[in-house]
Amino acid sequence: MSNKLMGLIVVVIVALLLIFSSMFRVNQGNEAVILKLGELNQTRDGQVKVYTPGLHFKIPLIEQVKTYDMRLRTLTVDSSRVVTNEQKDVIIDAYLEWKINNISQFYRSVSGNDSRAELLLRQFLEASLRAEVGKIDIQGLINNERDQLMQTLTKSVQDQAKKIGIDVVDVRIKQIDLPETVTESIYQRMRSERQKVASSIRAQGEQMSESIRADADATVTITLAKADRDAKEIKAKADAKAAEIYVDAYGKSENFYNFWRSMQAYQASFSGKKDDVFILKPEGKFFNYFNSSNSPNSSVAAKASVSQVK
Question: Which residues contact residue 270 at a Cβ distance below 8 angstroms, ignoring those fewer than 6 apart?
Answer without folding.
Answer: 278, 308, 309
